[in-house]
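Deviation from plan, reported transparently: flavin mononucleotide complex.
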Amino acid sequence: MIQVGPENSSEKIRLPKPNGQGKTSLEEAIRRRRTLRVFSEKELTQEQIGQLLWAAGGITETIDGAHFRTAPSAGATYPMELYAITPQGAFHYFSKGHALETVKTQDIRSLLSTATKRQGLAAKAPLCILICAVFERVTQKFGDRGIMYAHIEAGHIAQNIHLQAVALGLGSVPVGAFEDQKLKEILGLPPEQEPLYIIPIGYAQ
Ligand SMILES: Cc1cc2nc3c(=O)[nH]c(=O)nc-3n(C[C@H](O)[C@H](O)[C@H](O)COP(=O)(O)O)c2cc1C
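Because the crystal trials were delayed, the predicted structure below was used instead.
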């Protein structure tokens, strides 16, 4: 459960230090990963949410002031922005400092579900991670090919999340079927951020 800060403020919620040495082997996580679509209502801890966000976009090494992350990024341009949506609200993840900023203080999961062709997955899961791209960050360096690079990167990030979920005893579902504009409005996303992928996560029922 996230300890919520004031809506749309720059006040940071610091996440617990991520665990870099879990007990599940990589091979076991790969073997056990399957899409989970029916979730228990049991909420996730701040540690679990932080761990999943770290797997998605956490900083693992800093060399000469450059921060390298868990997932590869074309030209180290890092075009992604990540959001966590929980019963407590919606939160923007900051890799630097491994922290969150509060974007919404209401439970927007049912609303989110209306943007996902009413699949209901987002409404029931105790956590959804939303992956958004700021294409300009990567097209500045690579031109139009950068659009493809951003989509590839979203896949890297998503797979880290799915495997980390397994390692935490959780399940997840990749959701690609949603209405971009509706989702942007529900979250109040900045115009340059394009939603690419939603990943509902939770315990099996
Ligand atoms: C890019 C992508 C988009 C997907 N979108 C959805 C979706 O909108 N809703 C859903 O229920 N499953 C979605 N899935 C999950 C697939 O249906 C699922 O991965 C597939 O049935 C194989 O099952 P497995 O994940 O258990 O191996 C998506 C998967 C991918 C890779």
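The mean pLDDT is 95. We consider this an acceptable substitute for the interim report.
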